[in-house]
Here is the input.
Amino acid sequence: MHALPQDHTGVRVARLRRERHLTQRALSDLSGVPYDTLTKIEQGRLAATPHAVACLARAMRLEVRTIVGQPYKADLRADELDVLIAPIRESLDVYDLGADPDITARPLVDLREDSESLCAAVRTGEIKRAASEVAGLIEETTTAAHTLGSSDAWLVLTSLYRTSYDVATKLGFADLAQLSLARMDWAAQRASSAVFGGAYQYFRALTYLREGKYRTGQRLVDLGLQTIGQAEASQERDVVTGQLHLGGSVMAGRAHDTERAMGHLDEAGSIADRTGESPKVLWMTFGGVNVQVHRVSVLAELDKYDKAVEEADRLSIPSDWPRSRTSHHWAEVARAQMWTGKLDSSFASLVKARKAAPQQAKYHPMVRDTYASLEAAHRRLPNSFLAYGSWLTSQV
Here is the structure.
């Protein structure tokens, strides 16, 4: 039994289009997505690009997440992840209530160590662990921050709000991600941290990137660059600046603005030459490898799939690189390979994405849609392919 026979973006596009009494031709004209591309997306023969999804969402006046189907509630329930969302929401609600009299917070050094451990867990793809532990840590650290009132305490809380954002994003809860960012900004202001202020604008820009609102996202990148420019010179400032340029490159790529996209990549490359590989500075994985990975991504966003695949073939991901970023990279490579007709290579890349970070890959829309497109190609499917599909709809 093949997995996902009716669960891919194309099926949802077709259903939503019919609900609005639009023909394929009419939706193509409204969205600017070529008719031939739209028909193949609806048939599942092509994985919809983020640019195409954004265009279709605007044409039908929908949220991007409605089209991609997130959050995948049935699968989250099967993996017992859905029950972890409510406690996170509750922990974000007590931010301004002061110290909780029923909570005795541990020393700040212990809270900081646990916060760093959760950041590391997210980077290794341990989404369930991070989702399980972050709510309790936020509540405990909220009490500590209100009690101590120090910049260090507020910074630890800021980091935990960032982890909440990471979990919400990877599981597809856009509203929870936005709430987490609002709390991150609130805590960063109390810590008087321009570095985290710039990082906040970066993460905020990414939410608009996922929603297909590239103009607003680019404005936020520009605001983040202005904010981080107020920080004192440091490696942290350089890393956040470089990461903002990387975010801006993908933003411009999805908007099909080649000049701006390449300009951001060049700026990020120059900064990476100074910083070297800095994977643990604010856990942003910044450095030359990340610049190269983003170049692959940007070329794909610009619909230059052949060049994206060529760049990916020349790129060597270090064995100690964060598994979450490695998994995301292979998901993007799989999509580019699928678009160039390299179907066997595409599936091999999906396997690499799963191997690197299975919990993350399972809930990655690009993984699901690329799998569905490969399945729709009607090739002879090996047992390993069928097993992969079954895994996508089973417990991790």
Remarks:
- The radius of gyration is 21 Å.
